[in-house]
# Entry
Amino acid sequence: MTKNITNIYRATVVNLENVALDTFKLTLHEPTLSTQAKPGHFVNIKIPDCDGILWRRPFSIHNTEKQQGHFDILFKIVGKGTNNLIGRTAGEKLDIIGPLGNSFTLDENTSEAIIVAGGLGIAPFPLFLKHFERHDIKITIFYGVKTKENICCIKDMAEHVATIFYTTEDGSEGDKGYVTDLMHNYLDRIDLTGRQLFVCGPTPMLKTVRALTISYGIRAQVSVENLMACGFGACMGCAVRLARSAEGEPEYRLACKDGPVFNMDEILFND
Ligand SMILES: Cc1cc2nc3c(=O)[nH]c(=O)nc-3n(C[C@H](O)[C@H](O)[C@H](O)COP(=O)(O)OP(=O)(O)OC[C@H]3O[C@@H](n4cnc5c(N)ncnc54)[C@H](O)[C@@H]3O)c2cc1C
Ligand code: FES
# Structure
């Protein structure tokens, strides 16, 4: 995983688009940030004019258009901060810190990158596809959501990948069930040499993927989306427990500073 340099920017709102149920793509203009962004990096956004919001809100960098100096975040409305963001209009300025954290890295001998994303966990992967498209690798995506209204980004991503397998829990589109079941079948069918997984999604999905990758002995990197406060290592509010401390004295890393990307087998996921 690679580290980065961080700065504070005044980014200009370019566009806000409703792309799925309660889900929005916010396009911002900030040329330096869009040039520096790597897949897995996140930004911390100061929510403007909002009483009761002390801390910035973290969002993965979803995609970039370097020539135009734009970058996108993809977010779901869950509370005060995200509700505030859907009221932003073109031309407004947002105070943003980034790019923060480390990023996904391809191992030298990787011949196929297998992306596993659940829900909004799809957010970092369009940039992943753009960043690694010139590498001579096959990319396969496993993407799971609850219902068809939650599906987003598939058309755009389809241009860059060999196959997208997708599931809805209610069977309203794609295969019915959990995406981890499809991924499990796939791992059973292929030679695992040269395969590397890249994962982001809700904790129950991460736990299942972790168990599978360990039992198959396949390399995997995960981007965690812990609750965060300061975003720069001061509050200790985003601790991730290391697997090597499972039995003994707990050892932790900070998702904001040491992550958000970790080797899957090195960390544990809490309930
Ligand atoms: C590194 C990182 C990258 C992220 N990337 C994205 C992204 O690309 N798109 C996106 O939609 N969200 C992303 N998140 C989560 C996002 O930061 C939160 O959804 C957002 O801060 C919520 O702000 P709010 O004020 O609207 O909600 P709040 O009022 O702060 O919270 C509303 C509810 O959501 C819960 N909540 C808040 N943050 C999280 C979280 N991180 N995980 C689970 N539950 C949470 C709270 O516990 C509460 O129940 C990311 C988080 C991290 C740490
Ligand atoms: S969010 Fe404060 S230390 Fe990570």
